[in-house]
Structure formats: structure tokens, C-alpha cells
Known about the structure:
By secondary structure, the chain is of the alpha+beta class. Helices cover about 35% and strands about 20% of the residues. The strands form 4 sheets. The protein has a 7-stranded antiparallel sheet, sandwiched between helices. It has a 5-stranded antiparallel sheet with strand order 5-6-10-8-9. Strands 1-2-4-3 form a 4-stranded mixed sheet. A hairpin with a 4-residue loop joins strand 5 and strand 6.
Amino acid sequence: MRRWNGWGDDTITYPVPSSAAEFLASVLGPGTPPADASLEEILNRVAPGRLPDHPLIDRNPEPRVRHARGQSLPDWVAMRSGRIPTLPDGVAFPSTQAEVRDLIRYAQGVGAQLIPYGGGTSVVGHINPLPGDSPVLTVDLSRLNQLFSFDEKSQLATFGAGVRGPDLEAQLRARDVTLGHFPQSFELSTLGGWIVTRSSGQQSYYYGRIEDLFAGGHVETPAGPLDLPPHPASAAGPDIRQLFLGSEGRFGILTNAIVRVSPLPEQEAFHAIFFPDWETGMTAVRTIAQTRITASMLRLSDAVETETTLILSGHERLVGLAERALGALGLGDDKCLFLFGVTGSKRSVKRSRKDVVAIAKEFGGRHVGQYMGGKWRESRFLTPYLRNTLWRLGYAVDTLETALPWSAIPTTIEAIKDSLRTGLQDIGERTHVFAHLSHIYSHGASFYVTYLFRVADDPETTLQRWRALKDGASQVIVAAGGTISHQHGVGTDHLAYLPMEKGSLGMQSLGAVHHVLDPHSIMNPGKLFVG
Ligand SMILES: Cc1cc2nc3c(=O)[nH]c(=O)nc-3n(C[C@H](O)[C@H](O)[C@H](O)COP(=O)(O)OP(=O)(O)OC[C@H]3O[C@@H](n4cnc5c(N)ncnc54)[C@H](O)[C@@H]3O)c2cc1C
């Protein structure tokens, strides 16, 4: 069963060796496991829902608590501590487009707000009910999960938007095709969620981001239904699909989505290379991207992430051997792990691997084969389970990300890490910070920063620590002209920063579109933009 106050399936754990716990204690200080509230305690305190009866709506406390928060750090603090000031007043599970339409009409009729819910994996507060007088209806789209049609010739598949990653891929693989969209939250996140948050998968370098894969579909809005035809390309004015990419549930509910799929690759492999240091690694990765080699993933970890990954991997003996072997090759404490994927025909995989390794070699990169890349692939959807383990050890983990042109990356990345490293100094707390270049483009890259700090005894203090770190780093991102999010979206946590990125006229344009599609602002208010 899905964990109600953590990540993933409660039968899956991610143990770490005692040496990893010792390492964390040495960099952050000893952790104190926080006392979590039990589900029973929370359920006993739930006030009755304020929504009138409807056959599709469940007003019981348990589904309301289970749909109350996503996966952001504030969400974790709320669920773990049991301090959840706002809950949906009911949760609906529609199975058809007509039922979605009916629920929108119902919400309009009773003056309720409506929150579309995909997999609930948002890390920026997208699905949280906000305090207010109107009742809140959460619409869980998990029953809209069918493959409605597959046009083999055009390589287009139409799915219910609530389909989760594994179910979507299983249905496609049975037809020898793949969407190739693999966010780390793949296990629980949904196609609709990916589209309306402009998600990026780990192999988007090859398959494209979700905006490249989203061909069309159907949206139910408070102003009426809207079809988005899957034209391969069109010069007929602005593309209306773009309005829904990144709309975060504000413009309507995407009920089905048509996606562009690809034949299953003949071959795929993930390799590891170690660079002597970060600067050289970055130059090599940029050169690989600008040479336009058809890799499927390029991911460069900084030295701290390289070390932390090796320590947390749980393979103590192997890591010791690897460290000694790398040391003998002249790769010391500054070494940076570069993982790359190659996907496609046997010929192209072979050629791309050769090309990447050749460029890396020019920059002192040492190719160490497929073992580490294979391990990364095996555990890529398991890594989020580490959050559960670390929380129990008394450590909170959060991530943030942005994208910038290459010329701005080196200084901005250091400024962000610096802001996080020093963010809690005043209160005598330390932060463990590391980063990787995660999605690479010829003109720039996104980077993904992970930071760990100690959970406090009191949830409010943990939140204050998080806020100090998050605000400091977000200020650095916007001051450097970076986007406030490359892949996680805006939700509530980034809402204050969006106007700096879009400008006043840009925000007014978004508001005007919203006014047409959702004139009474019932759709997920207070997310993406105010109102
Ligand atoms: C461990 C972890 C790893 C992650 N890794 C990645 C990653 O690699 N790449 C990445 O891009 N993101 C990642 N994320 C973030 C998150 O998974 C994405 O934002 C994802 O796209 C959200 O999908 P969801 O189905 O869970 O949507 P939800 O969290 O349920 O909802 C997100 C937003 O979409 C709206 N929404 C959902 N479905 C619909 C619909 N059908 N119609 C209208 N609105 C809808 C909701 O109202 C909400 O505003 C990660 C999150 C976690 C916790």
C-alpha cells in the first residue's frame, strides 16, 4: 500500500549502511529521529467535510488525509507531524470524461474549489488545499487510466490522463513502443500531471521533454470542453496546447492525452566516466552537447555528490576498491562522476558511446564501463525511498533546480550552493549540499541541487530552516536570471518568483486566459499565480 506520510510503497525500503549514518553525523551532526504522528491520531481529529452529497464524492477522513499533501518538504513536515491545517472536504474518483464534467458543474453549483490530483507527487505545493471559506473538492484522476486508442502508423497513443508511469509503459511496451518519459517519480506520477507541470524525464535528451511528446487531447474546463487535435505541426496561429502545458490545474482538467511514442530501442546502455574535477567535466559535457551526439542521458555530478552517492550506495567494500583504483589513475577527491546513456539501434549506440568516450578522454575523463551506469539504472526509481530512511535518521532532504545558458552556469551553481551551505550558519546548523547537471541542451543546462539538514524537535523549527534555505537559494536563482523551475513547476512554493520571470504583461496574459476558461476561479486557486 502507498505510504500516507512518505514516499512510495510501504513494502519497499532503502536501508543505508552504518557508515552512511556515521558520514551524515560527521557532516551535519547527529540526527534525532522525530516523533511522527500516527494516521489514527490524525483521522480522529478530522472535522466533517463541508461538501454537500454527491454520488462520486467520498467525504471520509482517510481519503481526505491521503490526498491532503504532496511531496514537498513542507508537505512532509505537515504529514509527519500531523499538523495539517487544511484538508480537502471530499475526494472524487471519476472514471469517465462525463463524470469529470459533472464534478466541475457540481463544484460551480455549490461554490466549491476543485483541485485536480494526478499522482500527488508534486514537490512545490500544487495539490494542497489553501485556507478559505469555500469547500474544497479534490478530483483524483487515477481511474482515467485506459489506453483508449493506438494509431500504430502515426505512432500516437491516446491515454486517460490519470495513467501512472508503469501502467502507461506496460501498455505501450506490449505494442513494441515507448513514451520514453522517465521522471524519478515515474512509479507514482501520471501522464496528466507530467503535462500540466511541464515535466522532464531522465532520458529527455533522446525522447524529448513532455512538451515534445504531448500531441493533443481533451480538456474539461469550467467554461466548457476543449479538444486539442494532434497536428504534427501547424502554422495556424499560437498553439493552444501550450496553454495547458504548465497550467497546473488552473485552466481545467485534462481528461485524455494523445502522446507521440517511439519504437522500443534495439539497444540501451548506461556508462560511467570519471572526470578529474567539476570544471573539466562541465566543459566536456558542453562539448558533447554542442557536438550533437545522440546520447539519451548526460548527467554530471559534482565532487560532493560523487562522494555522497558512493557512500550512500551501501556497497562499502566495492566502493573502497573503486576509490583505490581511481586513486591509482590519478583521480582524487575532486573527481566527478559522469553518467551517460546511449539508446537506439545497435549501430547508433556503438557510435554514440565511442564519440562520448572520445570527447571525454580529451578532457581527462576515464571511462569505467557499464557497471555503475547499470546500477544507477536499476535503482533510479528506488532512490526517492532514501528520503524515508534519512527522515527516520533525523535528516531532511530537499532539492531545487533551475536552467541557465552555459555562460551563467559556473558562477550561479556556486552561488546557490554557497547560499545553501551557509544558510543555517547563524543558528549553528550545517547543511550538506551537492549538485548535478541534469538535463543538457546545446545552449545551456539545468542543474539539480540536493541539500540535507537536520530535522528539529519541533516541526515549525524544521520549516523555518527549510524556508531560510529555500528563500536564499531562490533569490540567487532569480537574481542570476535562471528560471525558478526547469521541471518541478510553480505551485505555491515558487509562485512569488513567477512574475519576475514572466513580466507584468506576461502575467496579465495568463490571467486573461484564466478568466476565459475559469471565470469564477474555482480551479486550483492560489497555485501558479495569485487568484
Ligand atoms: C521523488 C520525486 C522525484 C521527482 N522527479 C521528477 C523528475 O525527474 N522530473 C520531473 O519533471 N518532476 C519530478 N518530480 C516532480 C513531480 O513528480 C512532477 O511534477 C509530476 O509531473 C507530477 O505529476 P503527478 O501526476 O504526481 O501530479 P500531481 O502532483 O498530482 O499534480 C501536479 C499538478 O498537476 C495538476 N494536475 C494533475 N493531473 C491533472 C490533470 N489531468 N488535469 C489538470 N491538472 C492536473 C494538479 O492540480 C497539480 O497542480 C519528482 C517528484 C518526486 C516526489
